[in-house]
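Bench log, entry 3. Co-assembly request; chain sequences pasted below exactly as received.
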Amino acid sequence: MQRYFSEEKINNQLVLNEDDIYHIKTVMRMKDNDEIIVVYKKIAYLCCLENVKENIKINIKKELEKVNYNTPIVNLIIPILKEQKMDLILQKATELGISSITPIITNRSIIKLKPSDYDKKMTRWKKIVKEASEQSHRIDIPDILDIKEIKDLDKIDGNKYVCSTREKSKNIKLVMKNVEICDRINVVIGPEGGLTEKEEEMLNKQGFLSITLGNRILRVETVPLFILSVINYEFME
Amino acid sequence: MQRYFSEEKINNQLVLNEDDIYHIKTVMRMKDNDEIIVVYKKIAYLCCLENVKENIKINIKKELEKVNYNTPIVNLIIPILKEQKMDLILQKATELGISSITPIITNRSIIKLKPSDYDKKMTRWKKIVKEASEQSHRIDIPDILDIKEIKDLDKIDGNKYVCSTREKSKNIKLVMKNVEICDRINVVIGPEGGLTEKEEEMLNKQGFLSITLGNRILRVETVPLFILSVINYEFME
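Structure output for the full assembly:
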């Protein structure tokens, strides 16, 4: 069943944004009495459509069962990449249960974004994770946090790791043995060409532990999927 | 350094195909004495270019160190998907160390390929895994095996699994505990909409064990990446 996220509840009705209403009417061509699932404040509701053609109403029929995924909170810290790679990461990381994404500026990033373009990018990224959340039946939408520089990552709480091509012995498997389900995990991933030695040192000083993902050569956009797959796997019951 | 695969060695020279020579000359604009890595029969050689502009020669300078990845052999059995998804799976599965891919015909596959189109598709898929092998510095290229029907999978050797949305308790983590590094793992992944109950039953009868990857809703193209990440992780030393 089609799923949407709502940010407003009025009595027994949920309100959707214009894009979603367009999707219901024009893309899905739904009719009165058709059912959809709408998630509001991390609760999924079975809803029934009324008056679709004119002033659509989304009536709550009942609250649906909650699913608990039992994985730690993961904050992915990634350089701004080319659109196609960035989109892939946002989609797949959402599917695999990411909690938040922090875009960062790094020396070797190919994409040099002007601060005046930040808002436009943010809007795009938020739209992608919202849609991916709907498709993967999540009851929450990952946060896209403000774009930061590496030097500004020192205030982050929780377990802190940086994926390194220099580190050879401390691998993700060893590190995962000490991760608890209640932990908040922050992982920095470098751009194509990697973080500079200076950037990695700066992160180490801020408490980010350099780890290796093994000796395969993975593309930047594969790394988050690898890490999130492994975290899901480790906490599978 | 740029990497290519060769299928022919004459004395101290390696031979590349036309596409690769075009890449060297026109895309990379290499010159005489430039170095490349060429893999021939699972051995990587450092090579030096001679006479690039006319009749290019690829001279072997020395044999390079071998990398051993220490993971079981994995044969991914996947339905033929839309081009973009298929390409993504082939690329990422190659990066993550897949040994072979067996395309299958399933009831709910959206793509209905005529047998007369098989050759064209095969050529395309083989090109993609070759390029992905070069990019991820592999010393071998995954095999693309013949397109099969589910009823023809009974002759496959090794550990056999089918990713199921029906199975709730036997998860991949439990199953991985019994997988040895010398094993050959075959995993069937269903199309969008899943395998039919009958197809899954037929696979079970052929010795494929139904397993779940947990309770997240993953898209078809994410499933192989999840499985391969987990296998790499489990055998990490």
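Helices of chain B lie at 18-27, 83-95, 118-135, 172-176, 197-205, 222-234. The mean pLDDT of chain B is 93.
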